[in-house]
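In this section we walk through a basic example: taking a raw amino acid sequence and producing a predicted 3D structure, encoded as discrete structure tokens. The instruction is simple. Fold the sequence below.
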Amino acid sequence: MINNSRAVENAYSMMKYLYSELANRRFKNMDITICQNLDDLYALIISTWSASLAKEGLYKEYVTIEGEEMTSPKGQVDLQESIIRQSQTRGSLVCNYDELSDNIYINKVLKGTMQYLLYQPEISDEVKLSIQKSLIAFNGVERTDIELMNWKNVSFNNNNMRYKHLIEVCKTYFNEKSLAKTVGLDDGIRLYILFKKQIEKFLDQRYGGLLDVTTFEMPFTLENEPLFELYINKVQRMTVLSSDDRSLIYLIRLQDELAMNDNKIRRKRLDEMVGYMREYMARTGTKASGVIVYVNTDRNKLNFEPMTVNIVENFPIGETIVDIFDQWRFIENKLNDPYKYFIERFNKGSNRKIIKRQ
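The resulting token sequence is shown next.
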């Protein structure tokens, strides 16, 4: 496992794009410097977020209480059960009634997640102390085994939408733990997965005021795709910046040893990108450029090379490498370079304003 503060810092930066709540005041006192790895960061975010929700008031629903003996009858009295139990001799009646309670499924998921985190050896004692403090606010929620939970049973409505992103963080953590057991997943790959997931939000915040920021999905076309890619993404998901007649397609790929050592693989990936661009142009009628952003997860092999531009079958395609363990501001610069080259440079050269397509 990588014990690296840069990994924690970058993961937190990316998660802020994915979950806007992390930029709110409720997290201003959360000290990520106590986190030694990504498991610590997930645990600290989940415990801090859960405590904040509890402070605002845990979501409650009406639950049915059945067969409770009461000296002051409430709800519906079950006379037959009262006779069977002979509860009258004790001065009580058996009642069934509805009660507004926080002991409901969605709160059990949060409590079960925090209980699970307490027993993970990867999580530091300092972070576990934060979890224990947060659990106090869930005393009214029953203990549960999170590994038996069915995530599909978690539903959202207008009253509990404030839980949605927190539940997503919990689910992501457990998905990664499951993948780690089946296909192997170190912290570098986890950062890559997070990077690929947040890229749309990043580009939308950076360029959404100037351009349309959309996504574009196509099936994987190459052999030897990493198992975690197929498991998590199912399809190749790309993010597109579009103006009135020009588009820039961002494709995020892992810089694996296979591609680094075999130029034929690199060429196949360029050809794959051409296929995606051709399909996108047929759908939209815009003139498309593309960039393949390779993500390097080896912190000992930092890359300082600028973006290179290839012309493949008359399609301009950039290739650039971001180092996931580099400072986040340098990663941002690498992500901005394709926009500067393929859109901003064209705009300046032709003295045209960028107009968002309606």
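Looking at the output, two observations stand out. The longest helix spans residues 328-350. The longest strand covers residues 61-70. In the next section we compare this with other chains.
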